[in-house]
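Q: Structure for this?
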Amino acid sequence: MPDPYKVDAYSVEGRVDYEDLIRKFGVEPIGDDLKERLKKDAGGDLHFLLRRSIFFANRDLSWLLDQYEKGNKFYVYTGIAPSGSMTIAHLLPFIMARWLQEKFGAEVMIEIPDEEKFLAKRDTKLTIDAAHELAYSDALDIAALGFDPKQTTILIDTDHAGVLYKQAARVSKHITFSIVKDAFGFGNDTNIGTLFYTSMQAVPSFLKSVQKGRNIPCLIPLGIDQDVHFRVARNAIEKLGYYKPAIMHSRFLPSLKGGPKMSSSDPDNAIYLSDTKETVERKVNRAITGQQSTAELQKKLGGDPDRCAVCQYNRYLFEPDDRKLERIFEGERNGTLLAGDHKKDLAAKINGFLAEHRKAREKLKSRIGEFIPKP
Amino acid sequence: MPDPYKVDAYSVEGRVDYEDLIRKFGVEPIGDDLKERLKKDAGGDLHFLLRRSIFFANRDLSWLLDQYEKGNKFYVYTGIAPSGSMTIAHLLPFIMARWLQEKFGAEVMIEIPDEEKFLAKRDTKLTIDAAHELAYSDALDIAALGFDPKQTTILIDTDHAGVLYKQAARVSKHITFSIVKDAFGFGNDTNIGTLFYTSMQAVPSFLKSVQKGRNIPCLIPLGIDQDVHFRVARNAIEKLGYYKPAIMHSRFLPSLKGGPKMSSSDPDNAIYLSDTKETVERKVNRAITGQQSTAELQKKLGGDPDRCAVCQYNRYLFEPDDRKLERIFEGERNGTLLAGDHKKDLAAKINGFLAEHRKAREKLKSRIGEFIPKP
């Protein structure tokens, strides 16, 4: 029997059994055949997030590729609940979205639901204006990942409600309290803004079809904990006469200490895009590894890459070269790679990425309006 | 014991006991003292809708007049669920709003919630775009009542969600499913758009304060069936730090056949602003009166103005002169006024009003943009 674990829209606990999750959520694995097709359609290249099954499950991806191969291009939708300071875990769907833009010529639509953050935090002092500022900060972080401004639109819910709300109302007509109660675990004490919110999250997955006046396929890369929003919305969207969006689900980047998911609400176990060089070094230095307690034992017995956050961060984000990654894993396994060097290498990679990212972010500050349409 | 009757946000049934309703809803009557104050503050004039207690109840009206007398002017908010073709019953809050604008120099904000109409009609084919067209038609009817375009703003929810949604989210955080379940009789099968909607209706009652950056009193004239929205919203609005809106509640214009409320969903028992001269004559001719079954009996026994739709329409809308109204009532009571003449007189008054209204409406067609801000 697998260990107990929990994955829902609001929390991830325990050691996640991803095979089990595929059955539980009723999604499909991204198997070798789908990977081959993606590679071919992408022009012979497959992103390492797919090669390594970080994006591991899907809904209707095969259908989406049918459409693509018939010349019916898709667009990409993803998003983030505003954090003000994104972690490296937040990057996964955006890296995938950017790759899809580059390889498939896909337009990208990004939603940052500032009201969700505000509505969900029952006990904090976060105002809706503060949430809105966090959203703008995230928009800069996202744009800095290299999206093409001509092919990318960032929508911030309270700014773009003029576009979103009408369509959300259409979705909401097909979603009852029972449905969101069961799907999200809401109760009688849930506020009505939170009850309604999933309708707002649904909109960008068919908005392009509304705007163009014809059905356009949509692909959503997201963390599998967010799948529930679209389990609910896909039925409603189909009733409105639009294509149900296809979805690619990612695994969770583990926390530095080995928890199931790096979370921005646990600062010591997360690396933020705003972290300084020294902070990154300090945090990585305290990360869990799969190694033995002493250098001597490590040399003798070796370690376990699956339990090693440092190996996993290389796998998920910082070592695109499969052969180099295998050398890191091998070094961990056979004990030739010492924890100190291992961590120093990762910290340098992260800091290299963050330095570039900060530069790109700074440059975009005056140009963010190219991504965010005037409300 | 009073007859059973029912008044909620969605229906009115039975013979409404307005005294009982005041207790049940926890509102205050508009007594002689308040009428005197209103008259004085209005410059010596009191609208017949107040003189005749058609507007009969209130929340915080005395506080509002305190503020006014201290120089703290109020603005007026009212609205209508889009009908596409307003009935004369719909006019009551707008006539009051216009009078308040004229006598108190009040700005007027009007909300037309096209999404509410769309969301509430579970079984019809009404699209949200069709509801939106109805809203524009109503906007013209409202503007044609003589509002000052410089002092009047009409907001249509799907067009102005860019302004409304953010504030609605703030309201919604303080309203749970339990609250709307109890207040509106919603259940597990209610759609989440309808659950959320009351937050959108709340916004114009404090929007001016948001826009001006300081607290501005608001007065809402409305049919008492809509009070429930503000029983819910006033607490939330207070928690946000704004004044709770004051309210003036009207009675219901009876239906032509004597039902408790003229409803636009019952075409034969309602008079629409779009009805032709002949239609008005035909409908009024079939209206219930308080008279006896024959002219002879009528002359002998007299009639009952309270049961007579014709008398009531004069009282609510078409005979502003109290002495002339008393003569009509007296004629009904003592039997000197025959049903045929009685009806002919009313039909002529209604048609006179509708002819003027249509002219004003036609003139405004090209100028409606002065009332509806660019989204």
